[in-house]
Amino acid sequence: MSVVDIAMATYNGEKYLLAQLESILSQSFTDFRLFIRDDGSSDSTIEIIKSYAKKDSRIHFIDDNLGNLRVSRNFEQALTYCTAPYIMFADQDDVWFKNKIDVSLSYIKKVELIDKPVLVFSNSILSSETLDKEYGNNYSQDLDVTLKSFLFGNAGYQGAAMIFNQKLKQMALPFLANSCVHDYHISLIGLLLGNVCFINTPLMLYRRHSDATTKQNLTLFGRLKCLFEGDSILYNEKMLNYLKDFASFYKSNINTENINILNDYFEIVENKTSFSKRIQLVRKNKFKVRGSSKYLIFKIFLLR
């Protein structure tokens, strides 16, 4: 058995897959296996994977008859093959730095507790499609890795930046029926049932399409403009519904403090109480968006 197993989900990724595979195979830490499941590509993705699997025994192509599962289920299925003590996700179009596994593994071993789910994720550098431009780090240096700061983000921590232990994987499988984002599910397992830690060091180039990169790096003025134009949301409905199902399914494993935090969050976003009461709940819990409770209150005011 390897020390680290990597789960990669692919779909029509021929354009960037070669660079990603080369970056993984060039890692300074070599005791890993890479399990790749394709979701029904119509380009040369499968041929690329098979050719690399022939050259390197660490690469395993998952050839099943399950058809197109879509992103979340594709990663879930690849995850079932991962039996190593530590597991990572890989996207098909990023480029890993040579020390990504080494640094991630060393860090999780330092913070891991016996028989407890542990999730560690690292920073990454936002890059253009061609990797010729960089837009800064994906996460701010003072990122607050707490449930209270996470909830209004409407997204999980970056899946491709994660490493987690086997205990977390066991508690995460199977994903719930309405799972739409794999890294959101894994993030919730870490935050509500275990521990989450952040490595501020960037360990990969996070390839972004131009529109997504621009939106991610909006200035404060740009964010306010989106708010006033109605192009901002307080919560994502799919994420909210999944969080409710998650909280119900894992209720016996979630401590009372986090249950209370979730209940206050639900009360705020469902808009079933007065504006003043919602503000009280924000201040009581120190809920934040982009590191700011004031910004969150402003969103609630405009979108109430």
TrEMBL record:
Question: Which of UniProt's keywords are assigned here?
Answer: Transferase
Any Pfam family from its record, for instance, is Glycos_transf_2
Q: Does the keyword Ribosomal protein apply?
A: no
Q: Which GO terms describe its molecular function?
A: hexosyltransferase activity
The record's listing under SUPFAM superfamilies reads:
Nucleotide-diphospho-sugar transferases
Is Transferase set as a keyword in this record?
Answer: yes
Residue ranges of the Glycosyltransferase 2-like domain?
6-110
Name it. Answer: Rhamnosyltransferase
Gene source species: Flavobacterium weaverense
Lineage of origin: Bacteria, Pseudomonadati, Bacteroidota, Flavobacteriia, Flavobacteriales
